Amino acid sequence: MTSPADPLALPHGPDWANRVALAPLTNTQSHADGTLSEEEHRWLEARGRGGFGLVMTCAAHVAPAGQAWAGQLGIASDAHLPGLARLAEGLRATGTRSSVQLHHGGRRADPSITGRPNQCPWDEPAKNAVAMTTAEVEQAVESFVSAAVRAERAGFDGVEVHGAHGYLIGQFLDARHNHRTDGYGGSFDDRLRVLTDVLAGIRAATGPDFQLGLRLTPEGNGISLEEGRETARRVLASGVLDYLDMSLWDVFMRPLGGAEGLLIDHFTDLPRGAARLGVAGKVLSSADVAWCLDRGADFVSVGTGAILHHDFAARAVADPAFEVRSRPVPRRVLQEQEAVSPRFLDYLAAGWDDLVA
Q1: pTM for the structure as a whole
Q2: Beta bridge partners of residue 16, listed in sequence order
Q3: pLDDT tens column, 86-144
Q4: N or C: which end of the chain has fewer CB within 10 A?
Q5: Residue range(s) defining the domain that contains residue 214
Q6: Per-residue pLDDT tens digits for 12-54
């Protein structure tokens, strides 16, 4: 039986110390130009000290056109390198492994920030989005690859490509809307092409010890459970990935489309070769982590639990009875004990009714 405390070996790069990873959490703490702030550095380094086997940044935009919110971390130019390098060094000193999540907002970018219409696989005036040219699609792929190379130069152990939640890569997977005829839309294989090109490009451009992960949505945003499962099956079998991180919203939920069983079971039964499979969604106790591992996951990504406790991982590994503190939590407690900055607290208070008192 797999324990949360067990180390995790991957095809490339160093082992993780345990099976608990920090989920990539939007926090709006970066500077306006995408450079890392002291608040964000402090937030992430605290999770490294808190025992997480992997500490991942929030979604970092790989191109100016892909920025989706104010205060988003950037990895789009060499101007972002000094802060990223300092972060990678700080995380390594804590003993954790480190990763940058690579992101492009596509139709969900913010034109008021980017100063240009949103890029999208199709025209969508309501989102101020225009269909990308084939050259722009190819440039977006290259932006992901260049960002991964930048993360490796900064000293991170790896990157995770954000293919979930209806952002640019997920938009190419959308069967409802992506009817492009240039080889990047229409059939399932062609809708998958941007994703596979990004993954192959990163693997070819980075070294043998650099870890490559991918976050996917199982269904929704124009993706059926059948296609979500097939996408997962193909990337796991490709030999390119070190891990697949399935964002399930709630690890205990049933499929949205009414399929039988639990959503997690539609992915833990897939052959994965040497790649590893992670799951995320409302994991709030040691028992939740153990349940996911018993269900067949190789690791568990933790979001809310890591906000409530910077040392969630250390507690989950050491205490089988650990559960997160009751909510809502006073701002002072989160700020002083858990390294959650006032800006991050404002973002959480605006989006979650029961998190911040």
Answers
A1: 0.97
A2: 8
A3: 999 999 999 999 999 999 999 999 999 999 999 999 999 988 899 999 999 999 999 99
A4: N
A5: 20-324
A6: 999 999 999 999 999 999 999 999 999 999 999 999 999 999 9
pLDDT band at residue 1, thresholds of 50, 70 and 90?
confident
In a domain, 342, yes or no: no
| Within a domain: 156 | yes
Return the amino acid letter for 54: L
Q: How many domains does the chain have?
A: 1
Model pLDDT, residue 127: 86
* Residue 355, domain member (yes or no): no
The CATH number given to whatever domain includes residue 232 is: 3.20.20.70
Say what percent of the chain tops pLDDT 70.
100
